[in-house]
Amino acid sequence: MNQNELNQKISNLQSGLSNAMKKIENLANEEKQIPKTDMDFDIAKEILNDKEYNVVVCGEVKKGKSSLINAIIGQNLLPVDSDIATSQVFRISNSQTESYKLVFTDKTEKIISREELSKYGSQVDANINGTQELGGKSISYIQVSLPVDFLPEGVNIVDTPGLGSLYKSHEKITQNYISKAAAVVFVLDYANPIVEQEQVFINRILDITPYILFVITKTDRYEEDVRNKIITRNEEILSEIYSKRNLKAPRIYPISSTNLMKARTAENKVLGMASYHQSGYNDVENLLMRTIYRAVGLLRTDNALSVSVNYVNKVNKLVSDMLQSCMDDQKNIQQRLEEGKKRLQENFKEDCGEIGRKRNEIVREVSAICNSASNRVNQIFSQTGEVWNIALSSIDKISSSDDAKRLCSSLSQAISNEVTAQWDIISEDLQTQVYVCLSEINVTMDHVYCEDFNGSYSLNAPKMTKSEKVNVFTRGFMGLSMGSAVGGFLGSFLGPVGTVIGMGIGATLGGAATGTTANIDYIKSSMKKEISTMIAKMRADLLDVPGGSRFSKVGNFANNLLNSATSAIDDMIEGRKRQIQEELDELTQHCQMDIQTKQQEKNKWLEVQGKWNKETEHLRELISIRKEIVQILND
């Protein structure tokens, strides 16, 4: 695979398609009778111009994900440990200069040093030194920028905490970040075959992206017969998963991160090459680069190319109809008017019936999603939840009054950080589920498919993945009614949490811990009671319905989300009705034109047809480039 040639063709396809979409928009604005580009076209163009691609490395905890990434980039950069090491998402990007920073959920940033990566991103450090003070903010990811020559521009390698952790927030972070993946590297090891939890997660990934590369690490630690047995069993399990989706079963590629790191850091070239061959990375590197280039070269361009072809086909059909109308005599004009009215009326009747049924179904699904908000928030404060686990495990470790004093100064912030982090995950997941539901009604309304250009070439429109649907509706509705419903709640949520936590812990628990003869058991009991009261107040503030109100704060968020989603659905339906009526009005107006003006009108549409034929040819050329890219990736 010639990467320079491939990079050039991908760049030509992306820039050519971007220019084509701009030209199509300009042409659409030149003639008022040409329908304007729709939201799908606009979103596809925006996504095409988004040059960020995430290759997410995931798998169960302690499978060697961070060690693998360190070996691939040739530096001991990410935290690794025999215990659970990674507690945050690390995003590695190719850059001429080296820099490190924390990126928070509110989009603000904090510059850190390389030496501080473990301080903020290692669970081992957190267990030893405690959670870092972040001023009430939550980390979205840790950005690592340094020279990584093999990464194409805009492609990021993302290291996740992993599945199956004792820390539930780690698993939620990993699952949530998969929705942003263009491609995935799924890491296994030889200790056990793929477990049920991993199978569930693999299915979830396949709902989002088809680009998954399976690798199995720690090859240097096992005998060949053990390795072959585990790989064979794992490939059987993957074959069952993929066959249910009518997909080709994937291979699993063995790799030794230890030997690869030796190869990357060896001073002796001969020894370095020997370690490289022993690592098995040669095959993995080839597949990794092909996976990355498929995501970069095809994932977004295919959708943009498809909607462009669909739109140009619609315009070409309209222009052809206009020309035909100009050439018809008055009798045929009247006949075509009646047939057009009948066709539009039948389409309207068919669409409204199907859309109406789908609307009711989706509203019920969205309502169920919104109704789950209170239960999920309630689980945050349950005695088996992470909030209580943090509090009780910290209190149980107290062995002196000095321990109690130190805990008084840090426990409230730890609880605040955990509640905030879990709410971020819940609210984003609820919105994502609603966006996916909204995307379904748009699919119901979409009756336009990719047709061939006068029989010369046919491009089948690819189905949008769940990830692309979420992107479309996040961009399409977050900036409108849904954004105000969510944003308004977060502001009122964070304030009361800080107020409740700060009310009693310093005074009551701090006072109990200052006596020199204080009984440690009494101190622990007092602190647990205070924490219990505090958590109960937090829960009540969020879930209880205040006097004179219909909803709790969480209930009000869910109700706003439901109302916004319902409004968005109705707006789409009304838009479809207006579109059909506009088409009917346009057809009626055109057919009622005086027959003497037909020749002048015909000349105008012949000129319009010539312009759009050029764009048709341009899209054909881009389709050819795409075929060349696919051929290179398949060689």
What does this molecule look like?
The protein has 635 residues and is α/β, with parallel strands linked by helices. It has 20 helices and nine strands. The protein has helices at residues 3-30, 39-48, 65-73, 117-121, 123-129, 168-178, 196-208, 224-243, 257-265, 269-279, 281-327, 330-380, 386-396, 401-445, 466-477, 481-502, 505-512, 520-543, 553-591, 598-634, and strands at residues 53-58, 90-94, 99-104, 109-112, 139-146, 155-159, 183-188, 212-216, 252-254. The chain has a nine-stranded mixed β-sheet, sandwiched between helices. Helix 6 packs parallel to helix 14 (401-445), helix 12 (330-380) runs antiparallel to helix 19 and helix 16 (481-502) runs antiparallel to helix 18. The longest helix is centred in the middle third of the chain and has 51 residues, at 330-380. The radius of gyration is 29 Å and the shape is globular. It starts with a helix and ends with a helix. Mean pLDDT is 79; it is low at 446-517.
Assign a percent range to the helix content.
Answer: 55-70%
The main pleated sheet reads as: 9 strands, mixed
Q: Write down the overall geometry.
A: globular
Query: Which value, in Å, is the CA radius of gyration?
Result: 29 Å
Series of H and E elements: HHEHEEEHHEEHEHEHEHHHHHHHHHHHH
Q: What structural class do you assign from the helix and strand content?
A: alpha/beta
**Helix count, per DSSP?**
20
| Spatial order of the strands forming the largest sheet | 4-3-5-2-6-1-7-8-9
Low-confidence stretches: 446-517
The protein's oligomeric status is single chain
